[in-house]
Amino acid sequence: MTVFKITNAWKSFNDSVNVLRGISLSVESGEVVSIIGPSGSGKSTLLRCATLLERLNAGEIRYGEEIIAENDSAGKSVYREEAALRACRQQFGLVFQNFNLFPHFSVLKNIADAPINVQKRPKAEVESEASALLEKMGLSDKKDAYPFQLSGGQQQRVSIARALALKPDILFFDEPTSALDPELTGEILKVIRSLAEEKMTMVVVTHEIEFARIVSDRVIFMDGGVIIEEGTPDLISNPNNERTKTFLQKLRR
Amino acid sequence: MPLSVILAKLSQGMATSFAIFSLTLVLSLPLGLVVALIRLRPNRPIQAVTRGYISIMRGTPLMLQLLVVYFSPYYLFGIRLTPDYRFWAVIIAFVLNYAAYFAEIYRGGIESIPVGQHEAAEILGYTKSQAFTRIILPQVVKNILPSVTNEIITLIKDTSIAFAIAVTEMFTIAKAIASAEKTMVSYAIAGLFYYVFNFIVAITMERVEKRLNYYR
Ligand SMILES: Nc1ncnc2c1ncn2[C@@H]1O[C@H](COP(=O)(O)OP(=O)(O)OP(=O)(O)O)[C@@H](O)[C@H]1O
Ligand SMILES: [Mg+2]
């Protein structure tokens, strides 16, 4: 089953150069897709368009059976009304590079607030689920702590739990480890790996190519707003495209 | 005039000063937020109107604004108002003036919240108003508290401006006693009253700030 599909997506900011140039990506249920590519290639923009933080100029977006944006007769993207978009936001989650936890909420409240106030689920049920998520993240003892009292790696684990608490069908990660000290990246990668083992559908933008090789079902190389190469993780060891080769060499050095 | 009489008269004035202070605060804090939210709308004409209002309120003396509010019903429209209107003129002028200052404080506070907070709330499915009341506003309140405290302390001292239209607040009474009795004592006591009032406010605000220090 296709969880997410973006087709022929074009995006420019203020009518300047196109950052996305007709990119298409489809993600199947349970699949883990890694997106790799040089800085400025449009990886974040792709995730931001997929998560409706930015609007496409042209192209289509679907979540499951639901069409979120499609082209009108002039070939311009038309989005559903805000209420439908808000409902759709329950189907995906996004983990930010810099966590964006709510500083005035305790760890537990960061996780439980949206399920309670957005999804209107019973508080007791949500909080016990949130505690279970924290346990899974190895943060049971931090339930009542505030974000400023946590390390970057712990904050990122809370933000992953916050996204999972809404039970999304797909989770997007935008360089989840690049704001962390090298010794802390491991704990986040471990969490993503365990989610992959549970067949969570995920799209991960990352510079950690070794991690991408181990955890992904499919690897995508982006450059200049398009996919220049995609395939199984073996591609990381044996790229065909020249630009992919030079990029990977730079990362390895 | 015995000291006890001076004290009693000044206390009466103090009650009026306190009424001006609390009414102004209770009305201008929410009005300022409304003005700030309008000011932050992308709509250009509305933005221009709120900017003009804020700029005039901050660019002219409060005493002048008070005189305009007090005299314009008569000079512009020929309406004769009851003596009660004195007090309400003070409230109207003060609220309009302080709301403008608070609006700018709120605006700065709202703009200082990182865009990531808005985006995280949006992704999690909060409506715009939920995001504002649950996520943004509590952080804004904490950030602007020191500036609000400054305004509140200025407001206590500004209540004496009501003297300009002979509202019997504390300063007006102190001056009347001083000229009738040829004494500075009433000024000294009034000064002490203002000081104690400010001191209590400063301590209260400090406690509120401490209470919000549970997060950074
Ligand atoms: N809001 C914006 N306004 C204008 N230009 C933008 C905006 N966001 C991104 N861009 C431009 O789009 C291009 C692609 O940016 P994007 O952030 O998607 O790249 P990226 O692949 O995520 O890079 P990195 O690896 O550095 O994160 C860049 O040239 C960037 O300057
Ligand atoms: Mg990026």
What is the strand and helix layout of this fold?
The complex is a heterodimer of chains A (253) and B (216).
Chain A: E1 2-12, E2 18-28, E3 32-36, H1 43-50, E4 58-63, E5 66-71, E6 77-79, H2 82-88, E7 92-95, H3 107-117, H4 123-136, H5 152-164, E8 170-174, H6 182-197, E9 201-205, H7 209-215, E10 218-223, E11 226-231, H8 242-252
Helix pairs in contact in A: 3-4, 3-5, 5-6
Chain B: H1 3-39, H2 44-59, H3 62-77, H4 85-111, H5 115-123, H6 128-158, H7 170-181, H8 185-211
Helix pairs in contact in B: 1-2, 1-4, 1-7, 1-8, 2-4, 3-4, 4-6, 5-6, 6-8, 7-8
Adenosine-5'-triphosphate binds next to helix 1 of chain A.
Question: Can you tell me about this structure?
Answer:
The complex is a heterodimer of chains A (253) and B (216). Helices cover 34% and strands 27% of the residues of chain A. With 253 residues, chain A is α/β, with parallel strands linked by helices. Chain A is globular. Chain A has 8 helices and 11 strands. In chain A, a hairpin with a 5-residue loop joins strand 5 and strand 6. The longest helix of chain B has 37 residues, at 3-39. Chain B has one domain (17-168): MetI-like fold (Orthogonal Bundle). The mean pLDDT of chain B is 93. Chain B is 81% helix and 0% strand. Chain B contains 8 helices and no strands. In chain B, helix 1 crosses helix 4. Chain A binds chain B through residues 51-53, 86, 89-90, 92-94, 96, 98, 100-104, 113-114, 117-119, 146-148, 162, 166, and chain B through 114, 116-117, 119-120, 122-127, 130, 134-135, 138-139, 142, 214-216. The structure holds adenosine-5'-triphosphate (ATP) and magnesium ion.
Can you identify the CATH class of chain B? Mainly Alpha
The biggest beta sheet of chain A, please?
Answer: 6 strands, mixed
List the ligand species.
adenosine-5'-triphosphate, magnesium ion
Tally of separate helices of chain A: 8
**Chain-averaged pLDDT of chain A:** 95
Strand order of the largest sheet of chain A: 7-8-9-3-10-11
Which percent bin holds the helix content of chain A? 25-40%
Low-confidence stretches of chain A: none
Beta-strand content bin of chain A: 25-35%
The rounded Rg of chain B comes to 21 Å
